[in-house]
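Minimal example, chain plus 2-acetamido-2-deoxy-beta-D-glucopyranose.
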Amino acid sequence: MAVKPIHLKKLLVVLVLICMGMVALLYWGSLEEIYRVKPRAARWSAWTWDCENEQCVRRVREQGELYIPLSTCRMQCGPLPLWPMPLHISDVKRQSVGFGQVRVEILAEGKHVPEMLKEAAQVFKQNLRALLPEGTTARLGELVVVVKVALPTYLLSLNTDESYTLNLTYLRAEITAKTFFGARHGLETLSQLVWWNDVSLRVFQRAYIKDRPQFRYRGVLLDTARNFIPVPSLLRTLDALAASKLNVFHWHISDSQSFPFDSPRVPQMARYGAYSLDKIYSADDIRHVVSYARVRGVRVLIEIDAPAHAGNGWQWGERHGMGNLSVCVNKQPWNSYCGEPPCGQLNPDNPHMYQVLGKLYQDLVELTNMTDMFHLGGDEVDLNCWASALEDKRDPMAKWKYFQRKALMKLTAANKGKAPDAVVLWHSPFTRPENLNKKIHVVQTWGASNWGEEQTLLDKNIRIIISNLNYWYLDCGFGNWRGLGNGACGPMSSWQNVYQHRPWVKFDRSLILGGEVCLWGEMMDENSLDMKLWPRAAAFAERIWSDTDTEQSIRDAHGRLAVHRDLLVSRGIRPDTMWPEWCSQNPYMCLDEFTSTLK
Ligand SMILES: *[C@@H]1O[C@H](CO)[C@@H](O)[C@H](O)[C@H]1NC(C)=O
Ligand SMILES: *[C@@H]1O[C@H](CO)[C@@H](O)[C@H](O)[C@H]1NC(C)=O
Ligand SMILES: *[C@@H]1O[C@H](CO)[C@@H](O)[C@H](O)[C@H]1NC(C)=O
């Protein structure tokens, strides 16, 4: 049968109208309309999610009834699933708009910032793509993101303004920030307003967010000396720091066990100190980690611990006519000379040792481009080691002070003659206020929160970074690697304990630069890294960024953190499991407090 041209025209018009209708539906349509065109899950699932009393409730779906996926329900119902929670949110319209393309316009000047923003935009796009199930594409609609940055600042320092505003109105988002670092946080927040609803990427219709962190130092310590962690795992960890708006990767790169840093100026260190040839960090590796981190709003603070926690890697001095650079290396019985095997401590009486240290500092300053902050270590000096090994057995406290003075001189020289604004030392019996210069020194306190280390320092106007071991040491509570029974510290701090710790409530906050969670590496390598770090480091991230503390916010944290955990998974992290998935699908039904109020 031949089709008359007049019918063809009508058919075409109808087809065009249908197509336009579908486009409009996907673009602007309500969820109900969208799910009429949605295939599989909508046909298959016996359930749908309703929003009742600000929480998603799962309910059996009647024949032919529309399907709302949980991903959509939890974006549109109850507390906003952002992590860390921004400071101010207003004008939110949680109905959604679909899109498939993203265009980022960059308005910034300076030598490095436009380039860094381009890279940050790539990361942003990649993060959205990661929400799509494999093999799917989302094509319809375009989200336009305009990023405006005022200053050419391209290195993160303690004074960097990390604030941003995000103004989202119908597929146009404007992110305004003083610095690149604020803008990148804005992109991160925007990515958390986007989800995949089984059909397309969706984003809220409107949101206005003004945000800034409560603390400027928000760190994660990884130890790559007890066990080596390959670079890809470090990069993956940086992705997760960025997702959580943490801004310092404190890299404890060497210890008495191994020295994996292949220093360009002192190649002997890694040759003697690395576990093997493939367990080293070359200068290129470090440059790569540093620039990867910078684009993600993170600075890399590399610590070569000294004078203690320094043994393997330092044993080449005598062979090279420089005497013993370190003493007590691998000495037994270890518990007479150090806190954990193997022992090793720099030789404070050997002038060659300071030369080597100075060269290492030069390398680090160059590789990290860090001029305002440096970590000198200083952890757990064992006086018995020095007393047993050194000829000159005079006042050990004087030796510690001498070492610190010389190390600081070497650091200042490496830093083109200027002492950094913040030279961090681990807290110890030696870091008494009278031994410190409050203009330069910052003490990282790590004792339990009831040891009172912080008050003594704050009283004398010494700046601190807090890492209380009973809450923020993430390696505690996993047993004893040296024998039977419990490990050196415990119990394990759950994410709730990490989250609820607010050490600053007792103190004047002005001298608290921030905090850091520490994952020491005796029982951790790339295989257990993610699970030990996440989601607990993310719990810490919200504490240190937002520090919200209403009962409501702590209750809400369960659900919001579960969403953030899913986001980390979408970006390739393998975090620990928080609870049965049933609890994510039935918000608050697993919480003790909630259940008891139901009775
Ligand atoms: C947000 O953007 C919209 C559209 O560009 C604009 O009309 C509105 O004034 C902006 N809001 C603020 C607070 O800047
Ligand atoms: C270096 O240390 C070894 C012991 O480890 C010792 O036998 C030797 O005498 C020391 N050398 C110097 C110059 O002190
Ligand atoms: C870091 O410093 C090196 C020189 O030490 C320089 O070549 C490089 O451009 C710097 N990178 C940045 C991002 O400042």
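The CA atoms of residues 500 and 543 lie 8 Å apart. Residues 29-37 have pLDDT under 50 and may be disordered.
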